[in-house]
Amino acid sequence: MNGHHTAQQTWSSGCGVIEHSQLTQARVESLVASLAERGLCAPAEAYGLLAAADRLGNMGLWLTAHMTYARRVYLDGRAMAAADFKDKPEGHTGGALNMVPAYVGYLLANALTGKTRAWLMGQGHCVAAIDSLNILTRNVEAEQAQRYPFSDDGLSRLCQDFYSYEVGADGRTVAPLGSHVNVHTAGGASEGGYLGFAGLQYVHMPLPGQELVAFLSDGAFEEQRGSDWSPRWWRGEDSGLVMPVMIANGRRIDQRTTMAQAGGVDWFRQHLALNGFEPIDIDGRDPAAFAWAIITMADRLQEQHRQVTINERQYPVLLPYAIAETVKGFGFPGAGTNAAHNLPLPGNPAHDDETRAIFNEGCARLYVPETELRDAIASLTNHTRQQRLAEKDHWLRAMDVPALCLPDVVAAETGINVSPMAHFDGWFCDLVTLNPGHRVRVGNPDEIRSNRMNQTLDLLQHRVTSPEPGVAESLNGAVITALNEEAVVSAVLANKQGINLAVSYEAFAVKMLGAMRQEVIFARHALETGRQVNWLSVPVIASSHTWENGKNEISHQDPTLGEAWLGEMSDMAPVLFPCDANTLVTTMAALYGQRGRVAVVVAPKNPVTSVTSLPQAQRCARDGALVLSHDDGADIQLLAVGAYQLREVTGAARRLRSCGIRCSVVAITEPGRFRQPRDAMEARYTWSAAAIRDILPAVSKRVFVCHTHAEVMTGVLRPLDTGPRNCRFLGYRNRGGTLDVFGMLLANGQTWAHIVLHAAELLDIDVARCLDTAQWQALHGVGNPDAVR
Predict the structure, then answer these.
(1) Three-state DSSP class for 180?
(2) DSSP secondary structure string for all residues of 61-115
(3) Would residue 515 count as lying in a domain?
(4) Tell me: the pLDDT tens digits for 713-747?
(5) Do 579 and 705 belong together in one domain?
(6) Strands 608-609 and 598-602
């Protein structure tokens, strides 16, 4: 007992800048008793771990401040001289300092319970906190372990690398360190550069038996709509435990957060309660408070699920949510000011004596002697004894996702009109049925039936807390429906251990771009550094698209998402334009057999003629293009990117052939395979010149007819461009309105007759051979458009 009380007294006295409020002490005392009762941790050991966390927390603050300002680190705690500082300090210091007690609390919770939870951080710019603590505790990836040993020199190199901007001859960052979370950040699973997405994603991540701590920020809270819907989505039957923790420091870059201006934590507490959370206030300056919250929130959520299973309560649960109130930059001079976001000190310690004195005084309050620090770290790093994973290897960072069993493709009959989306709908239901071990998430911004996914909705159903009779709704539905593109795509991107699909109107899917990009850049960096990416590829279908959405005016006629996604690396971010029902299904089957890719699939929902057999469609999915017809000695090649474009190209070829002009007709379904590669990884994915010659017959005169703006494809398909005198690119010209498909094609110069006109000009023949007067007039705005319908 004496050992227990001595350890408790040592901890309760605090250490450095870390103090323990009466509320935190009472909560911890209750927690320690509970842990002992459950056989998880004896009281003396628990208080020893709590005291160790205080010491690690102080030195985490100490090293984080050094990362911003210092060139040299001295573990003996000596006062720093001018030469020990950077000429140009840099860092997101205030937020990083606030994350130190939070992350130490996470490590402490794991050590107290013998369970390694996953973590996610929405404020990726606070990574210095994570890196400093990981390096002190030796929870590091191989690159950091080698470069940053626990020594004066190793920690000095860490500080020198932080914002060094050093670039290698290969154009890559030299240091295994970044301004945000990256693949070198031990345990990091998301960059956190796009603020707000972690708040949308955390609830969709863990499977039953898994636990996730999500660190969020009050600044990011105002960035994205939808984080307050998390209680609507959580179900213990298919979801693991989630513990969201808001770091509420009241400030963003230039001013107070909107939350702070609206009433601060009091307002936020009411907001959470109104939206189905259980708000829990904690001291955001104390690692023990974070550890208590993490363990307690998990227990409370688990207990609520138990009550649901025995019909003592109903969904939605009150999702526990910790509000960690703190001061921005707590623990170091300058806390609470606007300057705390970046550089909290009034000047540069390298050049200003007064500022250097402030730095040294601030660090002296934080300093823990090296022997004492090493003892604290040894206590907290009890993984071997507890037989648990290191935090760098938590389940979200090291997933093992089984491959899918892919159903056979039942081909649509050629020559008949079939909705590609409806045809895929049936295949997707078969995919889900064949893979019951994979959790399914379908992201739906409220138009899934309009996009012809009726069978999918009937099978999987909208996920709701109170199903409406006669509607495809279910308590455990797998279709995440909200009129918010960012929220629904976050659901599928977060479900990394399952089967995912997002289906949206093309025009509004562009709102998904940031969330999608954050996933592929992190995954690609992992592959570049020799790591595995095991999550199954995620298709984002953009339907009700530009050429078939005239019903809803020009706002709904926007190919921006596919165009922007073509700017990403094609090996990770393909953009696909299936030309009929069979090519859509074979394309999707290929994607679901791959890993780590997020694909934009632009697909018609309305019936189009099936032009491919199953073998042709499979070849098209493999090659990214398909020659549909080719005359020997072809005079001109017509290449379509898009289903409606192919329809017009086919009509143009028919007319040209009737005029004695030999044609080659090609559907390009994956333009990125034919681009000029921008690095070695993309080069391994794109086709070489020799491969292109095998796939596409060489014809000097070419007309490209594109779903997108012409300028985009002119750049992407540059290797196929035979020069301005030999090539024409036709694309979307920003013309539209309440028009049918024909009206859209006419307004944008893409009817079969327009294609014939361009072909005639390239071939330098009289267009009157192929178009009559009425048709010519229709193309020039002086006749009846029906002449070219």
Answers:
(1) coil
(2) HHHHHHHHHBS---TT-PPPPGGGB-SS----HHHHHHHHHHHHHHHHHHHHHT-
(3) yes
(4) 999 999 999 999 999 999 999 998 888 999 999 99
(5) no
(6) unpaired
